[in-house]
């Protein structure tokens, strides 16, 4: 029977690189059976083909397995983290661990999305730390590109082959991994027609422009209000440190309304679009002049706490991530730049 | 009845029938304190309360949490808080976060935006 030999009661995160159905089952069947035998909730969030394989192999015990078609179990990393936490919250049994097979979709992703999912895999080690969850992330080497397979062994401390566990030699500290990750910039330069306001410490001024541009892009009703709210929460996050001021630039690109929120802690020359040295900000420190204003790695990936708890410092960032199509966090020197993309009126998924 | 809050952005009026508050305008970092105080002023009212929100123009996440926390506190006293006229997008946000199951909270019919 598969057992986690790390002795940890907190989050255990294994990668399983498999190259055949048989190799998938050699890991998944003992993992699921072991969990069910121990009275643990067990989830398989994987491809429909793998779910079918697993059910056939499990026979009667498949009735006790929770399953999710992985593409629909958190569409983006922020949704994925929420889906894991929701499963654990709803299914966890006192004194027992929860097991999850969690195979992300890699095929067909843009380079940027692929980087975001790699970063999330690293981030799970931080975001879920302390939760009594044993998660195995299968990677189908028949399908995933080589760089994704390499990332698997850098973002999971342990590799699982069948029931054999082996430490991943290339496992990296999650924050360091994320900081070093090359994330292709989606940020297009603001066109000359971009609307601009600020710098200001008044969120209402930023919100007003955000709403005007969303309305100008054809958003109406609840979608307009959600765009305004997403931009507001991103702005409010940046404005939280004493004395912070934010400049908003807003424009349209195919498929999205783009909000670039730029916070400068002191009066310096601006960061040019695509300037050398500007990069995705994920690491701590990193030369920011006001350390306590730095955006922590993996900020805004945990959903807000239940009602009755205090408002979390990153709750607004989580909402902006969740309501937007994407949220990039970049920093260079004293500047922090959030680029929020909200789906445009042509987004047929929201018609 | 004099409003409990009257600023350029936010007006909050106590209502008698049904008992509760009518909230109008904008709730953001500049008015959280006012909203908290207005909620506090009806915290000792016995029975169920209704917060009428159809004229809320903007409510941020921290403001929404104040309402959820208020509902939860009422639940501890076996009372409910109905949010009436909640703009549809805020209903989406409440559900997205999972706050729709907050004890003591009742979500009334939405109208307007």
UniProtKB/TrEMBL annotation, chain A:
InterPro entries cross-referenced by the UniProt entry = MEDS_domain, RsbA-like_anti_sig
Q: MEDS domain spans which residues?
A: 13-157
The residue ranges crossing the membrane are: none
Q: Which residue stretches belong to region Disordered?
A: 269-312
Q: Which domain of life is it from?
A: Bacteria
Q: Name one Pfam family in it.
A: MEDS
Report the protein name in the record: MEDS domain-containing protein
Supply the source organism for this entry.
Answer: Streptosporangium nondiastaticum
């Amino acid at each position: 029977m598969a057992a986690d030999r790390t002795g940890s009661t907190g989050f255990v995160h294994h990668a399983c690189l498999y190259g055949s159905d048989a190799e998938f089952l050699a890991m998944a069947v003992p993992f699921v059976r072991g969990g069910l035998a121990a009275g643990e909730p067990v989830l398989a969030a994987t491809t429909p083909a793998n779910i079918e394989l697993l059910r056939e192999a499990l026979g009667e015990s498949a009735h006790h397995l929770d399953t999710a078609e992985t593409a629909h179990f958190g569409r983006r990393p922020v949704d994925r983290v929420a889906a894991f936490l929701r499963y654990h919250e709803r299914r966890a049994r006192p004194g027992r661990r929860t097991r999850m097979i969690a195979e992300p979709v890699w095929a067909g992703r843009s380079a940027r999305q692929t980087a975001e999912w790699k970063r999330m895999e690293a981030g799970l080690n931080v975001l879920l730390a302390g939760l009594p969850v044993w998660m195995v992330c299968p990677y189908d080497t028949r399908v995933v590109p080589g760089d994704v397979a390499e990332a698997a062994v850098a973002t999971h401390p342990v590799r699982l082959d069948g029931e054999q566990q082996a430490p991943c030699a290339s496992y990296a500290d999650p924050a360091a991994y994320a900081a070093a990750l090359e994330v292709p910039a989606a940020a297009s330069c603001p066109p000359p027609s971009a609307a601009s306001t600020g710098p200001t410490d008044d969120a209402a001024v930023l919100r007003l422009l955000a709403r005007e541009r969303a309305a100008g892009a054809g958003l109406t009703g609840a979608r307009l209000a959600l765009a305004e709210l997403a931009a507001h929460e991103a702005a409010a996050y940046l404005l939280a440190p004493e004395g912070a001021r934010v400049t908003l630039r807003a424009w349209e690109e195919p498929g999205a309304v783009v909000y670039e929120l730029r916070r400068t802690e002191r009066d310096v020359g601006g960061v040019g679009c695509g300037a050398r040295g500007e990069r995705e900000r994920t690491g701590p420190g990193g030369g920011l002049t006001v350390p306590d204003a730095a955006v922590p790695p993996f900020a805004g990936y945990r959903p807000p706490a239940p009602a009755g708890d205090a408002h979390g410092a990153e709750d607004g960032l989580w909402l902006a991530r969740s309501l937007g199509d994407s949220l990039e966090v970049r920093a260079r020197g004293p500047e922090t730049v959030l680029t929020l993309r909200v789906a445009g009126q042509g987004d047929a998924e929201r018609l | 009845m004099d409003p409990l809050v009257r600023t350029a952005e936010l007006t909050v009026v106590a209502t008698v029938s049904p008992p509760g508050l009518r909230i109008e305008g904008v709730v953001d970092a500049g008015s959280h304190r006012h909203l908290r105080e207005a909620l506090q002023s009806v915290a000792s009212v016995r029975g169920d309360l209704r917060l009428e929100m159809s004229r809320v123009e903007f409510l941020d996440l921290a403001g929404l949490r104040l309402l959820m926390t208020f509902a939860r506190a009422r639940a501890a006293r076996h009372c409910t808080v109905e949010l009436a006229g909640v703009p549809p997008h805020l209903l989406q946000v409440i559900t997205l976060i999972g706050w729709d199951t907050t004890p003591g909270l009742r979500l009334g019919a939405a109208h307007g935006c």
